[in-house]
Amino acid sequence: MSPIVASATRDRLRIAIQKSGRLAEPARALLSACGLSWRESRDKLFCYGESLPVDLLLVRDDDIPGLIADGVCDFGVVGRNELNEQAAARARFGLSDAYREMHALGFGGCRLMLAIPETWDWQGPAQLEGMRIATSYPAILSDWLEKQGVRASVVELSGSVEIAPKLGTADLICDLVSSGATLLANQLKPVETLLESEAVLAGPARELEDQRADLAAMLLRRMEGVLKLKDSKLLMFRADRDTVPALLRLLPDADPPTYLAAETGGPLSLQTMCHGLVTWQRLEELERAGAQGLMVLSVERSLA
Ligand code: PRT
Ligand code: ZN
After folding, report:
1. What is the pLDDT of residues 189-212, one digit of tens each?
2. What would be the CATH architecture of the domain defined by 110-197?
């Protein structure tokens, strides 16, 4: 098993994912769907890639950008919020970019928002002058405040940010919001979005140059295939030629269809990959517009 050390050249790719937490399971599921499988070490911190020379490191999400910056890992699955915070903090220290977002992954969606006590009226960022804002994202918040031309003090907290106004340690907060239930439970209301976040694949700022480059290119291609297919379905139906233009207008999210004409004439057979949701309602609309024998098929893999 490879020792976990940084190295300028390696022939195996290393990906850091969250050990436990919101992004852990979806990250594993995505990498499995890309054809990766692993053997877990006893300490459950390192998973040795069996199907491909791609190993996993199971860590805290906060550590992922640093592991990429130090060359210990080549890629990581991490929230854009965490990646951008650490990149903003590096920039504030005058350090160069050490990692970049390679691909948005479509899970772990949330927003980094300013939230104020629900009894306040929100009149815009100027209202924040001289206030204390609790957050776990001090660099993103400081950059945003500077852009707004507002001087406020940033109170850095590593957790339970939402109770800071009640405790009197801050006047308002800047935190991640998904359903909004936590804000509601703490009598806070969201007023400004600083960042739209989701899980992303992070990679090194510079291209990999050794054998890992080909592996990385293959992994990214597979990942794009998996993500593109996530909500996609193969739609098959028959239709008379004169109804086809109207049917295609009902499928703006579909690829150009493949047509098959029967030698004996009669209706055309069509098949197309549809990238939006194919609901019962859509099928019924297509049927009313002349589609016959509609079939919706799941697609397992595609390199299209
Ligand atoms: O142990 P480790 O350090 O790895 O985990 P962690 O506790 O730091 O991270 P974790 O698992 O809580 O979150 C990992 C990533 O999930 C975050 O960096 C975000 O990219 C993403 N994510 C998505 C969220 C949320 N949604 C989210 N709602 N991370 C945190 N929250 C918290 C938020 O901070 C607030 O306390 O959930 C609360 C708000 O949720 P709602 O639904 O009430 O609005
Ligand atoms: Zn964390």
Report:
1. 999 999 999 999 999 998 888 889
2. 3-Layer(aba) Sandwich (3.40)
Pick from 22, 77, 188 the residue to mutate for probing ligand 1's pocket: most ligand atoms within 8 Å of its CB: 22
Phi, psi of 56 (to 5 degrees): -110, 140
- Give the domain ranges of the chain: 13-108+199-229, 110-197, 233-298
Q: Does 108 sit in the ligand 1 pocket, CB within 6 Å?
A: yes
pTM here is 0.88
- Please provide residue 84's backbone torsions phi and psi, each rounded to the nearest 5 degrees: -70, -35
CATH number belonging to the domain at 13-108+199-229, selected among 3.40.190.10, 2.60.40.2150, 2.60.120.40, 3.90.1150.10: 3.40.190.10
Is the pLDDT at 230 greater than 90? The verdict is: no
Q: How far is the CA of 67 from the centre of ligand 2 (A)?
A: 14
Give the total residue count for the chain.
304
Q: Does the Cβ of 55 fall within 6 Å of ligand 1? A: no
Chain centroid to CA 35? 19
Contact 211, 112 (CB under 8 A): no
Q: Which of 197, 198, 191, 85 is nearest to 148 (CA)?
A: 191
Take atom 11 of ligand 1 and give the residue whose Cα is closest: 21
